[in-house]
Amino acid sequence: MKAPEQVIILAAGRGSQADGLAKVLIRHPKSKKTVLDHAIEAFRGKRVTVVVGFRAIQVMEQRPEVRYVINNDWAITHNAMSLGLALNDDPTYVISGDIFIEPALIEELDQDNPNLALVDDRENRTLTAVHCILRDDNSISETYQGQIRDVAHPEVIGLFKVSDAKVLRSWKRFCIGHGNLFAGLTLPFNIAPIQAVPRKNHLFEEINTPADYYRFINKLREQ
After folding, report:
1. CATH assignment of the domain containing 202
2. What is the DSSP letter of 203?
3. 161 within domain boundaries
């Protein structure tokens, strides 16, 4: 199956733990490019749609060439609503707008399963983290949030690839109907298999707090 030619970046929320910034505009400590810049480069050649809300004009000023969808209810919804507003039947990548990534990761995922969620076995997880339970074939059977139930349950870390039109339609409906949830909790994994794919060693740096950013700075210093 052909790789998706569309990507949806979820960037409507307010970074209340990140000094009140639009997190998609956080700059890489070395390259000085924003999260949005890195995403556009990583998904080069694909149609980019950014869902905005908080400080929407500030974001749109930075990259006026991409397509935008505005979530006017960003203050009272989570990113499931943002995703529901932007989803259509076209095969797509979906990524949270607070993650630095690199092209090599997307090049690899382009060749992987048509429906997948990137996962990681991170030890230090917040109570807002989304975890998943896997079947024997490594497909996702359930996602949940809060205290981890078993150390064998990896974290769903905010990057999805969905090519099946039935999955996309169901995901859109569920997101619109449950806009107070995170997108990873609304995955319709019972319609078609959604594989859990490990992050491996690719650049994938999520910035939620000043501590996350400083940890990233120190990691770059050690390289």
Report:
1. 3.90.550.10
2. -
3. yes
Q: Is 106 within a domain?
A: yes
Nearest to 86 by CA among 175, 195, 155: 175
CB contact at 8 A, 153 and 59: no
| Contact present, 145 and 200 (Cβ < 8 Å) | no
Q: Look at residue 212 and tell me if it is in a domain.
A: yes
- For residue 88, the one-letter residue type is N
Tell me the two tokens of residue 217. Answer: 């700075």
Alpha-carbon distance of 10 to 190, in angstroms, equals 24
Q: Is the pTM of this model over 0.90?
A: yes
Q: How do residues 80-131 score in pLDDT, each as one tens digit? A: 999 999 999 999 999 999 999 999 999 999 999 999 999 999 888 888 899 9
**Chain mean position to CA 206:** 10
